[in-house]
């Protein structure tokens, strides 16, 4: 619910994320744990998003992604973290990535 016009309707962790982002401060260890647990429990939206510059030029299932290519959110996050940034071990698949960040 991040981005809601009514701050009172936000989950407390969504508000925490906004507060940290707007202040520019670093999140503490307990805050990071709360955020990670909340995000993992919520999961990815079922809608699509557009590929950004980091994903342009990456192949996904036989398709060369271009800036603005439409992708499911889980795929976009997977490609960003596992392929573009290489934050997960080489060979990590989409299902393994999603399972690793889920509660």
Structure characteristics:
103 residues, mainly alpha, two-stranded antiparallel sheet
Helical stretch tally: 4
Total E-strand runs: 4
Beta-strand percent range: 5-15%
> Ranges with pLDDT <50 over ≥5 residues?
none
Helical residue percent band: 40-55%
Mean pLDDT, nearest integer?
A: 88
Looking at the chains present, what oligomeric state does this protein adopt? single chain
Radius of gyration, in Å, reads 15 Å
Which structural class should the secondary elements be placed in? mainly alpha
Q: Give the domain tally.
A: 2
What order do the SSEs take from the amino end to the carboxyl end, as H and E?
HHEEEEHH
| Overall 3D form | globular
Task: Outline the structure in words.
It is built from four helices and four strands, in the order H-H-E-E-E-E-H-H. By secondary structure, the chain is mainly α. A two-stranded antiparallel sheet has the order 1-4.
A few lines on this structure:
The protein is mainly alpha-helical and 103 residues long. It has helices at 12-23, 29-42, 73-84, 94-100; strands at residues 48-50, 59-60, 63-64, 70-72.
């Amino acid at each position: 619910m991040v981005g809601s016009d009514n701050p009172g309707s936000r989950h407390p962790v969504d508000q925490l994320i906004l507060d940290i982002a707007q202040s520019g401060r670093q999140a503490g260890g307990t805050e990071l744990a709360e955020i990670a647990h909340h995000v993992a429990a919520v999961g990815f939206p079922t809608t699509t998003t557009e590929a950004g510059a980091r994903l342009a030029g990456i192949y996904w299932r036989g398709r060369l992604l271009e800036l603005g290519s439409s992708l499911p959110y889980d795929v976009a996050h997977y490609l960003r973290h596992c392929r573009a940034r290489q934050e997960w071990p080489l060979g990590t698949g989409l299902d393994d990535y999603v399972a690793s960040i889920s509660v």
